[in-house]
Design brief:
The chain is an alpha/beta fold. The chain has 20 helices and 12 strands. It has 2 domains: 229 residues, no CATH class; 230 residues, Alpha/Beta hydrolase fold, catalytic domain (Rossmann fold). Helix 3 runs antiparallel to helix 6.
Length: 542
């Protein structure tokens, strides 16, 4: 992965809409008094990804007042805007940390046990205590009390990343992620030990056609990002390539077909390593916890597994550094999709509509520009069930477990878009002749355009992901009514993983795919158990 800077990365022509997408995410957080930082990192293949960070929780109580719940869609105060914009920086390039910054990070985290670093940490803790309530002070050291259990130092992770990304380079002009994002009590700095103010770090990764907003839309006391921040975690939220918050590339514009030539393979190979390593280095930890929903589980499984070298294909090692992910929570996991009952995906697979899209020159799937315009015209306010019908058909949700008054809000953030090639990859999984395999994208046998299997992999068939190679402790939470993550496909996943890897497995009888992020009872039915797994010792397999 690379953090090399280009002064003017190519951006979507609809720059104003992209800025508005970030502004709308801000509306989900800042009115409640929570901090929000915006970071950007460049992948090895040039995509500029937007990361959000909530370094600590509410200033007053773990659950925060819900009187401002609907204020998420109201105009922000000028002070709220300053809090975000001061951290956002002056553009994509200005928000990317350079080699020198991470070099400093490695040195700082190595020296974190020195008297100077202890004094700095003490001063930061005192500053937190002086401005926040005792409840928040208690949350600054959660029950887990750990900075990561891999045994590695933050400096080892960051230095290894630097050596792989920039061999022989020792310095460059420092560029920070906006004013104050590299230091200070809110960001924690890179030498802060267990993340901001001594907190363990957790990384949340959204699902298919979603964005980081999925972990925020139900507000404090309900959405997982807020709950984790209130429990004392340094919370990072990722956005994969191509969604409304990560539509920038260092050399390509979204109008270029090459911008969209990727699937979840590239998310696992490039996006996760860039985002997770950046989060760990910025927070000053050697390892972190990971939580993914839907496709967010697919990409972490692929990144941890690597692919085998069967049928002449060159083996591909896991894309994440060993020990970087201490444990992972999989919500509605999808490794294969052979037995899904999602009508849109079944239609794409049966009718080969993914190929039809490509022939028609369509490369982006469900961009949300037009949908947002329709929402602003009141479509969801008038016909909320019509508005959500496609997502319901694709993923499924339980209407009895949904705050119907918030459907317009949900649909203003989702769908967040992806590539047609990514949807084609899912269609391939449905069509797969061999159900018991999770494979890389199938480029087919024809090589005139240079993108056939033989040229891409060295084999006629796409390689399988080697799920048995995963050793990271996992917790699996699934729904019995889920049309994307079905019991039969989950059985394959469990059988493919090594003995002892799954430490907790929980099935929620009434849950469908979107209930894991939208469900009004998710805290009691799901998130409390998730937080216990994250905070507790890693026990025996389920």
């Amino acid at each position: 992965m690379s953090l090399a800077l280009a002064e003017e990365p190519h951006q979507d022509p609809h720059v104003a809409f992209r800025a508005d997408a970030l502004d709308r995410v801000e509306q989900l957080v800042l009115p409640y008094g929570y901090p929000l930082q915006v970071h950007q990192v460049v992948t090895e293949d040039g995509f500029v990804l937007t990361l959000l960070r909530m370094p600590y929780g509410d200033d007053s109580s773990p659950t925060a007042s819900r009187t401002a719940l609907d204020a998420a869609a109201a105009p922000r105060t000028s002070s709220s805007r300053r809090r975000l914009h001061g951290l956002r920086g002056a553009g994509a390039a200005a928000a990317i940390k350079t080699t020198a910054t991470l070099q400093t990070a490695a040195a700082a985290s190595t020296a974190s046990t020195s008297a100077t670093a202890r004094t700095t940490a003490s001063a930061r803790t005192q500053a937190d205590s002086a401005t926040r309530s005792s409840t928040t002070e208690d949350r600054s050291e959660p029950a887990a009390g750990r900075a990561g259990g891999s045994g590695a130092k933050p400096s080892d992770i960051c230095q290894g990343w630097l050596e792989r990304s920039h061999p022989g380079r020792t310095g460059a002009a420092q560029r920070s992620a906006g004013a104050g994002a590299a230091s200070g009590s809110e960001s924690g700095g890179v030498g802060a030990g267990a993340g901001a103010g001594g907190r363990p770090v957790v990384f949340l990764q959204h699902g298919l056609l979603d964005s980081a907003a999925g972990f925020l839309v139900n507000g404090p006391g309900r959405s997982l990002a807020f709950l984790l921040a209130d429990q004392g975690y340094d919370v990072w939220l990722g956005n994969v390539r191509g969604n409304t918050l990560s539509r920038t590339h260092m050399a390509l514009e979204p109008a270029d077909v090459r911008f969209w030539q990727w699937s979840y393979d590239e998310m696992a190979q490039y996006d996760l390593p860039a985002m997770l390593t950046y989060a760990a280095c910025t927070s000053g930890v050697a390892s972190l916890s990971y939580l993914g929903h839907s496709q967010g589980t697919t990409v972490i499984l692929a990144a941890l597994a690597g692919s085998g070298g069967e049928a002449g294909a060159a083996p591909r090692p896991p894309s994440l550094p060993p020990g970087l992910v201490e444990r992972a929570v999989l919500l509605a996991p999808v490794a294969v999709a052979k037995h899904i009952t999602s009508v849109p995906l079944l239609a794409m697979a049966t009718l080969n509509t993914d190929d039809m899209f490509s022939l028609l020159g369509l490369h982006e799937f469900l961009p949300s520009d037009a949908l947002v315009a329709a929402l602003e015209g009141g479509l969801c306010a008038l016909q909320p069930y019509l508005c959500v019908s496609f997502l319901a058909a694709l993923c499924g949700y339980n209407p009895d477990n949904l705050d119907n008054s918030r459907l317009p809000l949900y649909l203003s953030y989702t769908p967040a878009g992806t590539s047609v090639q990514n949807m084609a990859h899912w269609a391939q999984a449905v069509r797969a002749r061999a159900p018991n395999s999770m494979r890389l994208f199938d480029f087919g046998p024809d090589c005139p355009n240079g993108r056939c299997n033989q040229l891409m992999y060295g084999s006629l068939q796409p390689p399988r992901y080697n799920l048995s190679a995963i050793t990271t402790p996992l917790a699996i939470f699934s729904g019995l009514q889920d049309r994307m993550s079905t019991p039969l496909d989950l059985e394959y996943l469990r059988e493919s993983l090594g003995a002892g890897v799954v430490r907790l497995a929980t099935v929620l009888e009434a849950y469908e795919h979107l209930d894991f992020v939208w469900g009004i009872d998710a805290k009691e039915a799901l998130y409390d158990d998730v937080m216990r797994f994250l905070a507790g010792p890693i026990g025996p397999n389920a």
